[in-house]
Predict the 3D structure of the following.
Amino acid sequence: MSWKDSAAYKAYSALGERPRGLEPWGVNNAGEVVIGLGELFCRCNIADEGEEVELCRKPRFSHTGNLRSHVKTAHKMQVAEVRKGTSSGSEGIEAEKFYKAIMKKHDALGADYDPNSEIEQTPGPVTPSKPPKKIHRPLVPRKKDRTVNKSQMRKTAGIGKWCPACKEVKRSEFKSTSCPGPKGSNCKAWEAFTSESESESESGTKI
Ligand SMILES: [Zn+2]
Ligand SMILES: [Zn+2]
């Protein structure tokens, strides 16, 4: 069976557009483009030097001969000559492998693959969102008599004389007299502190 009859080559030659993930051609020691047996798509890299590879947009050629002349004329590149009469042996096996690899990649990349989109990348696997960083909150400051040091609390919480919540209460009929208000109220000052009950006995933690 000839490589031309392989399922991979049949699939390749039936494609209207270049298979996904196709690599640009390499050149041989003579600087010539080496076009493989039966190739039908131009693999010239048309991107400027140093830029990301961008292959020629030409659709499928009807046969390799047309592709070869396209490369010579449109891209002004030297094309390596094909050795005649040798395509039955090892080259045929190579060709079959080549198309198998191309079609495997093509299928693996999926239909939504767009080689020319840099911004619109297919989203990668969903990374599990990291647990929120544990913020170490200080303990509620207390005076020597163990009562809550309210002014110190506001200072630590970055609140002026009143937090927004207490200010609202102050203006309302409840007339809050100070901030921080009672524990358990909406007072923002309390949010900056660890309540004694949930405090962890972390040793060596400097506040
Ligand atoms: Zn081309
Ligand atoms: Zn408050």
